[in-house]
Amino acid sequence: MPQAVIASRLRDGRAVFLDRNGRWVEFIQDSRIAQSEPEGEEIMESARRSEERQEIVDPYLIDVVVDGEAVRPVLNREIIRAAGPTIRTDLGRQAKR
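The structure assignment produced for this chain is given below.
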């Protein structure tokens, strides 16, 4: 199953995703998607280096579904972390995209 790396940015606590250039981005659609276990380990190694530099904390791989340009997490916990508040869809990231 395709995977992406999610973590918490230390500067402001926001959930962020590792992109193709090794930067941390706020939208899962911009994240790098690992299509294999070796590729997942490769992007996790990049995430661990960011954690050592104290840019982020607690990076881990999440399963995602890719449908064309759309990327969405599989589990509810990551769906909420990726989108923002569940009771007001006019707030959080879901309101910005």
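Interim note for the steering committee: The chain has one domain: 3-96. The mean pLDDT is 91.
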